[in-house]
Amino acid sequence: MNEIHEECGVFGIFSPQKASLAETVYYGLYALQHRGQEGCGIAVCDDGVISAYKDVGLVGEVFDHSKLSNMPKGNMAIGHVRYSTTGGNERRNCQPIIVDHRKGRMAIAHNGNISNAAALRDKLELSGAIFHTTSDTEIIAYLITTQRLKCGAIEEAILNTMKLIEGAYSLIVMSPTKLMAIRDPFGFRPLCFGKFPDGTYAVASESCALKAIGATFERDLEPGEMLIFSSEGVRSDRTNCNTKKRQTCIFEYIYFARPDSVIDGITVHDARVKAGMLLAEHRPADADIVIGVPDSGLDAAMGFAKYSELPYCIGLIKNKYIARTFISPTQSSRTDKVRIKLSAVESVVKGKRIVLVDDSIVRGTTGGRIVNILREAGAKEIHFRVSAPPFLHPCYYGTDIDSCDSLIACKHTPEEIARQMGADSLGYLPVECLDELNCHLGCCKACFNGSYPTDVSNAAKKDIYEIKLSDKQQ
């Protein structure tokens, strides 16, 4: 693992009249492609009948004009782009998940990770449940289905399920008559909604997807809130709001989300520029120019340059037609792709003392290759700066940081890491600065400081680690 893997992305739409909603979901998922590049799917509800198509691959690979045109018109649809935080990269693990039960059919799309999934799975299996995947989304589906048999309305079943599950979840659930959007009480993952003039509503992991389809952004869901879209309009249930302290994943601002997205009222680009300015304040460097690692390090590099009053330059060019390095299955091919992916602008970096800004260091391998590329282009000095603190702890809420064995900062000091990468110095953003990135609204910093917002049992830690390990061996 050389880079942090993306989260998943969810999208949903409710229309007062029948329309070709699969096409709209397609464009929404395209805008969320950065959140998951392993698989995707779309489910449409037509007069209470839910049908779906999903497969492994990028949105543009899975869906072409023929597949979209063959999907029925309807008044509701949901979609999902996936990175496998749990469950292997197979078609059966793609979402949305479709569930049949005695009171009808439903479709579920989920972003996040359930930290008590192991205990819930054991309990459900004892009661006779048979799981077809290792996905915690299927656990949520089983729980909602079980609760649905006891309740008069599906939203009541979802509220009861929320009392049972812990961890991160932004959910979109589609029944034959309603579309529901749910954000967990901690607000780990983003979820927002927008509206069209004709009364059509759309829900998405990020506001950039609403912008892509022409919807007007309304607001973010509050942590713990559930929105219910139906023929009667939109209704908010805040039963589970204000029951937990907000803990939005800070890495949404540092890396996951698109720079043009707005999360809880804060533009991601602005948060990253702020991170760069704080980085320059606390980890300055005597240099001639500042450059960023495309694309995720560029905004923070701008902030570093602004605070330092140094020139911000484009010193690295990214080949936009190659997938991210983590997709490569072997270390040798990852190394080759770093060179194909990035190249230095020699006229910019030659003979210069450079501040090189990136969003994170995991193993240090990719960072070392980038430093080498700049050295070969004639850089005089390279001062590596990171707009996040060092990763020191596993994440149990959906980010692919599953073991300290994968984290170079657990084994080496910044000085040692700098030497290994060939940099002249290395500086991380202090963990104390993270609250400033989202204006002290509250954020999860567990992967940096080990302070987990929820209790994570040893069984759950072992379960999540073993699932991820089996994924990597597939």
Q: Can you tell me the CATH architecture of the largest domain? A: 4-Layer Sandwich
- In whole angstroms, the N-to-C terminal distance is 15 Å
Tally of alpha and pi helices? 17
The outline comes out as globular
| Beta fraction | 25-35%
The total strand number stands at 23
Q: How many domains comprise the coordinates?
A: 2
- CATH third-tier fold name of the largest domain: Glutamine Phosphoribosylpyrophosphate, subunit 1, domain 1
Please bin the fraction of helical residues: 25-40%
Task: Give the oligomeric state.
Answer: single chain
CATH class of the largest domain: Alpha Beta
Largest sheet: 7 strands, antiparallel
Output the structural class. alpha+beta
Could you walk me through the main structural features you see in this protein, from its secondary elements to its overall organization?
- The structure is a single chain.
- The chain is α+β, with helices and mostly antiparallel strands.
- It has two domains: 9-247, Glutamine Phosphoribosylpyrophosphate, subunit 1, domain 1; 267-452, 3-Layer(aba) Sandwich (Rossmann fold), CATH 3.40.50.2020.
- Helices cover 32% and strands 26% of the residues.
- It contains 17 helices and 23 strands.
- The chain has helices spanning 21-31, 59-62, 65-70, 117-126, 136-148, 154-162, 207-213, 251-256, 268-282, 298-308, 331-341, 346-349, 365-376, 414-421, 434-437, 446-449, 458-473; strands at 9-19, 39-46, 49-56, 74-82, 97-101, 104-114, 167-174, 179-183, 192-195, 201-204, 216-220, 226-230, 233-237, 248-249, 262-263, 266-267, 289-292, 316-318, 342-344, 353-358, 381-386, 425-428, 443-444.
- The strands form six sheets. It has a seven-stranded antiparallel β-sheet with strand order 3-2-4-1-10-9-11, covered by helices on one side. It has a six-stranded antiparallel β-sheet with strand order 5-6-7-8-12-13, with helices on one face. A four-stranded parallel β-sheet has the order 17-20-21-22, with helices on both faces.
- β20 (353-358), α13 (365-376) and β21 (381-386) form a beta-alpha-beta unit.
- α4 (117-126) packs across α5 (136-148), α9 packs across α10 (298-308) and α11 (331-341) packs across α13 (365-376).
- It is globular, with a radius of gyration of 22 Å.
- Residues 324-335 and 465-474 have low confidence and may be disordered.
